[in-house]
Amino acid sequence: MRKILFASSEVHPLIKTGGLADVSASLPIALQQHGQDVRIILPAYRQCLEAFDKIETVATIKLDGFYLPVEILQATLPDSDVILWLLHSPEHFDREGGPYGLPKSGDWEDNAARFALFSRAIAVLALDQAGLDWQPDILHCNDWQTGLAPALIADEPNRPATIFTIHNLAYQGLYPQSAFESLDLPESLWHSDGIEFYDLLSFMKGGLIYADHITTVSPTYAQEICSYEFGYGLEGLLSQRAKEGRLTGILNGIDNNEWDPESDQNIRKTYSVTTIRNKLMNKAAIQHHFSLPENYDALVLGIISRLVSQKGIDLTLDAVSALMESGANIQLVCLGSGEASYEQDLRMLRARFPDKVGVHIGYDESLAHKIEAGADVFLMPSRFEPCGLNQLYSLRYGTLPVVRNTGGLADSVTDATDENRKNEIATGFKFESSTAKALEERLLQAIDLYKHPRIWRKMMITAMEQDYSWEKSATAYLELYDSL
Questions:
Q1: Residue 261 lies in a domain
Q2: Is 271 helix (H, G, I), strand (E, B) or coil?
Q3: Rounded CA gap, 111 and 117, in Å?
Q4: Both 283 and 242 in a single domain?
Q5: What are the start-end ranges of the H helices in 218-312?
Q6: Domain count for the chain
């Protein structure tokens, strides 16, 4: 049994902005089920504190760079036996809003201080300096918010092995040099082979430089970030770490208990491979929810997404608009929020095609399940996608993904080519070029194939039979831990 400290700025169901939160709950639970002693460390956001009736203070510590002592609170991750430690510093984390800022005003100005404090707390726990009599064998850090922790303990003689997982390289935690100076960080870290990045402080580089091993959330993304297009100026560093054998891509898994059409209490009618016809009742339910005509022949396209350029929302808007103008028998249901311009464009599309488009701006977990169960196709035309989870949920629900051939989408969806359909391995539709025209052409092929119910049904069954549970991914992480 290994002791593993899992550090993340988001953990479902306590705080979530994206897939990081899902991974940060599911992977520790899966590792514990493999007999590992796992503890999660998370900032004590207001939402987290409000989620627990009972919470215990187990340590009070003084951290460099901040004048007040902070507390380590202990609880148990909901619906599990995994111990959860919360870094309680009200000045930094007990405030209204999300983990990084307010929806309308953007990121908080003190995020560098907030997550430097978080990284310092991670380092103290990793070195068993909080008086808890528990030192991990492995420190597993996730994304830039934890990136300074491997750097802070790199030269400590009795430190644990360190892993740093990149969930999205586009977000690097970049701040001016003045932030570095104000945070009272070790001067020895400020150089080009440290956390300095073109005269900026880079939290991300702390993990990339100083961790013993780097992982990404899919094999293809691990390759892509070594290129100019996806590397954001770090491709040289990442290529070097890959040559050293210290960069690995492990595809995320999904929680098969939470995402299971056979037992999902959020959907109108449960179904499985053997009762797949029940999916039609969920299609009718989602059409009714969005006040669309209950038309079984219409191909229902589903979107659950952050409304940002990375997700290819503009491609979807242009492609779907062109198809609807041409009279294609399709409907679109969308759940998401993000850039105001995309939100407005979706509302305008809804106004133009009120009998074909349904839009819910915001996020609703129950509605996400209903869309996965009710749609025929799931749209995910991302410009880049480190892993993606919704295409995995879609496969489990027999909702065929239409994806761009990038990152985790490339690794998890098998294209509906003639050969793949003949060999009965096709599970969705892929396109290469990040253009609305390429997406439109692939959607036309999906529309045509939908007119052949036996072929479509076989693809649905093949998709539902895929195994993207955390069992496989957790085993890969355990092998990596062993190698360290």
A1: no
A2: coil
A3: 10
A4: no
A5: 219-224, 228-231, 235-243, 279-289
A6: 2
